[in-house]
Amino acid sequence: MGLVFDNNIPIYIQLLEYMKIYLISGVFKCGEKLPSVREFATSFKVNPNTMQKALSELESMKLIYTERTNGKYVTNDKKLIEKLKDEYAMTLAKSYFEGMKKIGLGKADSIKYIERIDK
Description:
Blueprint: H1 11-24, H2 37-44, H3 48-60, E1 64-67, E2 71-74, H4 78-102, H5 107-116
Antiparallel strand pairs: 1-2
């Protein structure tokens, strides 16, 4: 899972974003036990303290939880995951349409480009 990090954004914030994507895309499923902090840190090639900070943020967002002595797990709250997915998708869509607007294309023309993808 080695990632390329942006030096202008704290690594734990970037890890948090990657982890959110893994959760909403189903890489990690509801109720699934997560790898240990050390395993994550090794696979992402980051300091365990940095990884722990990202995981703590996920826990404060109720996306994961800790069972004492058993490790960390993905929330069983499917509605929370779907809400996060919807918010993320809206952010991506808004960004796309804002970019298209900058080059002089309206929503209808922008949609035509989307429809041309994978043809």
